[in-house]
Specification:
The protein is α/β, with parallel strands linked by helices. It has a single domain, classed as 3-Layer(aba) Sandwich (Rossmann fold), CATH 3.40.50. The protein is 36% helix and 23% strand. Strands 5-4-3-9-10-12-11 form a 7-stranded mixed β-sheet, covered by helices on one side. Strands 6-8-7 form a 3-stranded mixed β-sheet. It has a two-stranded antiparallel sheet with strand order 1-2. It is globular and about 45 Å long. The model has no long low-confidence stretch (mean pLDDT 89).
Length: 233
């Protein structure tokens, strides 16, 4: 009965958008008024977030508690929710436009997921953030001379103590060095990370990997030079 209700609900929600793609039981809004044609094309060809998803499918298990830092469109979050259940994932995304799309995608799939419109940082409070029309280029690092906007942020340590994740997925557009360095990562057993050497440089990436190794993590698999799965026992 619940499965039938979900199918009816999803069918109703699809009518609200001009384009919805359903693949492997997951529906995703591909309406051109909400996402770019480049992302649409990448989704259709299976290239969008393909490296992260390949590691998610291998690393994330049904008993994991997942925190995603930097969810953008929510595409990876949807696949995590399909594995662990919507009640076992928390999503952090600082861009309010992206958060609207993420929430619409979860609602489309009839999933109630905790989505926090906050940046994850080294402290609690407010921080400067630089929003770009391109969702993928918004960052706390001002690469394009954009005006600064104050946004709410939560410390990584607060995230760990509050949500107690066993698995962390992070794509933070260069902020990964500040968020993850100098932490014991209490309770976290696995990390799927997209690194950004073109933003913060190879030296900082090498430093971060060494810091994670000091905390007991080892690289299990690399989907590419930038996308890695680390784990500790």
């Amino acid at each position: 009965m619940l499965s039938l209700f979900r199918r009816i609900h999803t069918s109703f929600m699809k009518r609200q958008y001009s384009d919805v793609l359903t693949r492997n039981g997951i529906s995703f809004i591909i309406d051109s008024s909400l996402i770019t044609k480049d992302i649409q094309k990448a989704i259709f060809t299976g290239q969008y977030e393909a490296e992260e998803l390949s590691l998610v499918r291998q690393a994330i298990q049904t008993n994991d508690v997942v925190v995603e830092i930097g969810a953008c469109t929510g595409y990876v979050s949807l696949h995590c929710a399909a594995i662990v259940g919507p009640e076992r994932i928390t999503v952090f995304e600082p861009n309010p436009i992206a958060v609207q799309l993420i929430n619409k995608n979860f609602k489309l799939n009839d999933w109630d997921v905790n989505v926090e419109n906050k940046a994850v940082s080294t402290f609690n409070g407010e921080m400067e953030f630089f929003f770009d029309k391109n969702l993928f280029s918004s960052s706390y690092i001002n690469r394009k001379g954009l005006p600064a906007t104050k946004i709410e942020c939560i410390s990584y340590q607060s995230v760990l103590s509050q949500y107690k994740p066993t698995a962390l997925i992070i794509d933070a557009e260069g902020a990964e060095i500040d968020i993850l360095a100098n932490s014991e990562h209490e309770g976290v057993k696995k990390i799927i990370i997209e690194l950004h050497p073109h933003i913060i440089g190879d030296a900082k990436i090498s430093f971060l990997i060494e810091e994670l190794k000091k905390a007991g993590f080892e690289i299990v698999k690399s989907a590419s030079e930038k996308v890695k799965w680390l784990e500790r026992t």
